[in-house]
């Protein structure tokens, strides 16, 4: 199952970034616009941070997803840019995840093998943590990273379609699909 | 950025308190008739561009920020009755009022609703009947751009089609329809205040699926449409100015001013020839009670003692389960089929029942994902197991008015301006419980006919309110037993009217907003005639 740029933009519409009004698809050009948010200290999502997110997505996403790296980048970059406060929370949570990896395994999260990445989440109790933007380490990682990426995938039409829902809540997919029967 | 002008309007004809649907419609009508109108709204003017972020807050667990800012000292209340009443769960203070949050279902009440005493010997008749309201219902449907069809065999008579075509039935509706047919239950479309076609004001519904609590596209009607129209007609709408009390003249026959406070703490008096209270079924009686004076120690317009009393809501009844086939839920956030077959009461043993067939039963894939403790392929398997074959029916159930259910002042607690908070005293009587049980019985029969494994039932013990606050300034012809007359003018003060569901004498089981709009139009006509 291949995620498209449209899926990333659809997910962005569901999370209130990237700007989607009505049913028109957002234009790709918007990604290149400078942020209009007045923020003296915008968060930065560097290559290392992005790598961490892609590594995390490899754990979170099912094997049917083929191009998680492209999807994550297309989804996360505008999100951090357009919502600086949320973006700062994401960047801080990435730092936290990497710190745990370095302390326990001596390497950044992205450098761990697949099994170790999943074990680290379990060690931190991220799998059972309640998401909380102001909570403890596990709760912030769950909120800003795990649930951001899961929501990005499963609130997109392609991701939700893995379970048979092509117009998930948060996606402006029109009013035809609800009338159709299962295929 | 400079602060908006929140000083009073000089020579105002009309002062409206509250910018929800009732206040906005009254303001719009009177402004377009050429009157000088000012609307005082306690809450803020929300930025439409922030609706998508509000949607995320709704869709994602973990962020407890209230979607529309409700809660905190401004909105403090006490729930003092037998049943907990979560007052802030669905009301909104702000320009647009609770229509920012609502589901958008807009049915006319039935002829029987207006005469339950005459027909059933229960409660009281309204001082108006369906025929009186019929032209106002038609105008209200036009005002709210209602999408509907004339396929409901139980609906009261109507003279013309709805302004927009109804939304077609869902796939799951077709499953329910078959089961209902076997049981002899007729199903039909649902009138929605939601664009099925684009208009000059808003796009057609694009299926975000989050109607309640927020519609990012604006296809669902909210009262900002009438606020905008009122402003275009010359009305002033001032936000963040909670009215503290109304003042009256020495004779006690007229209101002279609404006293309000700005965010900077400045107090002003807004004078006008006519005043309209449209602050909802809780804040409207509260404001009257807060406006007590030497002459009116029990509060304004309360010669009957009925202000705050007869508080009613609709109760939710529901049954849900799963089929062994796909049901295609969660594509949209509104319903497309109902049955009003059990609405009218045969006798006084039960209240009205409005049956709903839900299009959003069970969790969406993202809901499951964000709460799961598995990841990757295991998570996908969990999602596939958890999404896709849910079905559910809901119902609104009538609660008849009882004087002991009431909004009063809790003088032991104060809000952010030092005013006693509202206390909601609410309980269910046996007839309401029986009506909920009857609704469950029908729902269970339908789901069993469908072949569903029933997984949950919301009955009389688990039920909760639909957040339709009604009855607290009831209409009537007798000044000793009611607060407003058939024109929505208070019996006690000649220039004070009340718009909103607080004037309902009984509540039926229809979502109240179309009737609120119809009555607001009726009140506006009467005020216009007096000015």
TrEMBL record, chain A:
Pfam families hit by this protein: Gluconate_2-dh3 (PF13618)
Region ranges (Disordered): 17-46, 162-183
Classification via InterPro entries: Gluconate_2DH_su3 (IPR027056), TAT_signal (IPR006311)
Protein name: Gluconate 2-dehydrogenase subunit 3
Automatic annotation (TrEMBL), chain B:
Annotated SUPFAM superfamilies: FAD-linked reductases, C-terminal domain, FAD/NAD(P)-binding domain
Domain of life per record: Archaea
Membrane-spanning intervals of the chain: none
Keyword annotations of the record: FAD, Flavoprotein, Oxidoreductase
All residue ranges annotated as the 4Fe-4S ferredoxin-type domain in the record: 196-225
Cofactor or coenzyme needed: FAD
InterPro entries given in the database record: 4Fe4S_Fe-S-bd, FAD-bd, FAD/NAD-bd_sf, GMC_OxRdtase_N, GMC_OxRtase_C, MIP_CS, P2Ox-like
Keyword Flavoprotein in annotation: yes
GO function terms (MF aspect): FAD binding; oxidoreductase activity, acting on CH-OH group of donors
Family: Belongs to the GMC oxidoreductase family.
Identification of the protein by name: Choline dehydrogenase
Organism per entry: Halolamina pelagica
